[in-house]
Specification:
The protein is 47% helix and 12% strand.
């Protein structure tokens, strides 16, 4: 049985004894290796990879995608952002829009937010009750198991762990810095007012997911990028990716 996760036990920043410049150099090596492994993944075609970045606003989901997968080919690496469901999507079950964008073999798909939104926002806003939350959590676990076991999908789930203080600073910077003002959304501050409710919802998810989450410290982007790149690189290395053999047919 896994130990219970409580986010207060996990740091939001880097260890005190590491140097930013050294970590940035290591991150570049890791991201280049991810690019090399992605080419093998594309050639091998035995596995798919799904990377999930889930967290509150200003945790760096977009930035992590750009940094960690910088050396990957866009032909085989694609990010998908989950926003408010369309009318057609609302007329289907909540996983319908997710399944159709799951990665095919040979590809990496990055989810910026994910199917977990449907047991976060809807729970906090009380659009669904806890019974519906539990039903959807069971459906998510079954869905992820289907991707993993039936389609050889490596699923890497990152909770983007940022301190409340640091998130507030980043949201304010979107107002103060003209070059970032396009990112500002008043609703982000409304969500922030419900911080404790969202933390309760995240604790439920982190402790009821069959495929475990990795808690990525996000107060400093240079360490966040290193943490994520290291986890992705290690997981891809464990897939034993290889170039397939080509068999020629003789003339008889």
């Amino acid at each position: 049985m896994r130990n219970m996760i409580h986010l207060d036990d996990y740091p939001t920043g880097p260890p005190a004894d590491i140097k930013k410049r050294d970590i940035q150099k290591e991150t570049k090596k890791l991201t280049k290796e991810i690019g090399r492994l992605q080419k093998l993944l594309y050639a091998d075609r035995r596995y798919a990879i799904l990377v999930i970045f889930q967290g509150l606003d200003a945790t760096g989901k977009d930035s992590s995608t750009r940094s960690v997968f910088h050396y990957c080919s866009p032909m085989a690496t694609w990010a998908y952002g989950f926003v408010k469901p369309t009318k057609i999507e609302m007329d289907h079950d909540f996983l319908w829009r997710v399944h159709k964008v799951a990665p095919r073999k040979g590809k990496i798909r990055i989810f910026n937010r994910s199917h977990y939104e449907d047991i976060l926002i809807q729970r906090v806003e009380k659009w669904i009750d806890i019974e519906r939350v539990e039903m959807r959590m069971n459906a998510i676990n079954a869905f992820e198991k289907l991707l993993r076991d039936d389609n050889n999908t490596l699923i890497l789930k990152f909770y983007m762990h940022i301190s409340k203080e640091r998130q507030g600073e980043k949201l304010q910077r979107r107002i103060d810095d003209p070059s970032r003002r396009w990112k500002h959304d008043d609703s982000d501050w409304i969500v922030r007012e419900k911080w404790d409710d969202y933390m309760d919802a995240y604790h439920y998810i982190l402790n009821n997911s069959d495929i475990p989450w990795m808690i990525a410290p996000c107060d400093k982007k240079w360490y966040r990028n290193y943490f994520i790149a290291k986890k992705v690189c290690e997981a891809m290395e464990n897939l034993d990716l290889r170039i397939p053999k080509i068999f020629s047919i003789g003339n008889g």
